[in-house]
Please model this.
Amino acid sequence: MRSFIPRVCVAAIFAGLLVAVPAAASSFLFSTGNPDGLIATLSRPASTGLLETETADDFVTTAFDTRLTQATFFGLIPTGTPLTSISQVEIEFYHVFPADSGPFDGKVPTRVNSPADVEISSDTRDSAAGTLTFTPSVVSSMFSVANTVVNGINGATPFTGGEGPATGQEVLISVNFTTPVDLTADHYFFRPEVMLSSGNFLWLSAPRPIVAPGTPFPPGFTDLQSWIRNENLKPDWLRIGTDITHQGPFNAAFSLSGDTVPEPSSLSLLAIGLAGMFLIRLGRRCTTKDF
Model:
């Protein structure tokens, strides 16, 4: 009779090939582009006598796994403030409401397309915890914006019109995630906060719709607007443009980069094809004679 060993050998090699074929990684880059001077909004951690205030803007990942390793964002700090006054950077990521959220409480005009109630806790990165490092640089010693949102953020009377124009130093904060952020394919919000020893960090807006050197959203996804909240408004958020200033809507100026890995099933046909070619040759050589 013929030996069954070659068949077992062939099956094992076939399975091994399927497992061994790695998912090919490619680079990931998303950017809203450069600041447009339309608005700047507060985004800072809580400190003595100061409420935490968060600004968030959205982005999309379409790969099975996206590993973020770097981020950049543009802001406005008071004129003459040394870069050494930037003492802490914290970054959080949010799903889109209603994920990670309770039911809509009716205390703000809408939560449709807002960030979720709470952040994705496993993806918080903080310079104070050593999970990110940051490098600030001055882009312009004098940069002006047409409006700002700093105070008066509340759900009862959302419209304040903002605090008006401001001029300061335009800074770029470049971030390296020492602990990378892994995200599945989804729609997310990016929220940076910056602590200054004196004064506030205001996150600068970017063109909407996105223009070069920004990277437009992939087909099938809508570029949502930036949202803001303070501790008193939590868990809700307000739209910076539609609710608070009746301008915009706005994007915020930031970028994210890293690597993507496609879903393993997208490479299965390639693996099967390679394995099949190998098996044809192996079958011709591996068959033993009767014994």
